[in-house]
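To the wet lab folks,

You asked to see what we're planning to order before we commit. Fair enough. Below is the target structure as tokens, and below that is the sequence we designed to fit it. If anything looks off to you, flag it before the synthesis order goes out.
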């Protein structure tokens, strides 16, 4: 099993990862869906061995969203994970110094 996790998601929890792992079932990959209903490809997809053998759409396109169409992917709806502790912050990514300052303010409050 493989965990693909973006480095700018500081609020992903072990509880979320356990939930995703427990629900991979017969799928090649499992991906959470954010509050806005969008698959969150930078959030932690969990993938089985098939992802290691599945080609990306084109050379140089090493993004998760290029890999998932080639796999039997299960998308976990927000309603399934919204009650997990910390769920409101799972998809908060840090793309700028302002994002980082905002995250710091959340931790210090």
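Sequence we intend to order:
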């Amino acid at each position: 099993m493989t965990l693909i996790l973006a480095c700018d998601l500081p609020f992903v929890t072990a509880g979320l990862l356990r939930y995703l792992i427990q629900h991979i079932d017969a799928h090649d990959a499992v991906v959470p869906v954010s509050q806005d209903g969008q698959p969150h490809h930078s959030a932690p997809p969990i993938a089985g061995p098939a992802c290691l053998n599945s080609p990306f759409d084109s050379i140089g396109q090493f993004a998760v969203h290029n890999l998932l169409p080639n796999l039997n992917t299960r998308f976990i709806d927000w309603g399934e994970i919204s009650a997990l502790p910390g769920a409101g912050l799972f998809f908060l990514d840090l793309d700028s110094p302002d994002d980082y300052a905002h995250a710091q303010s959340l931790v210090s409050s």
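Structural context that might help your review: The helical segments are 14-22, 50-53, 64-67, 78-81, 97-108. The chain is about 30% helix and 10% strand.

Thanks,
Computational group
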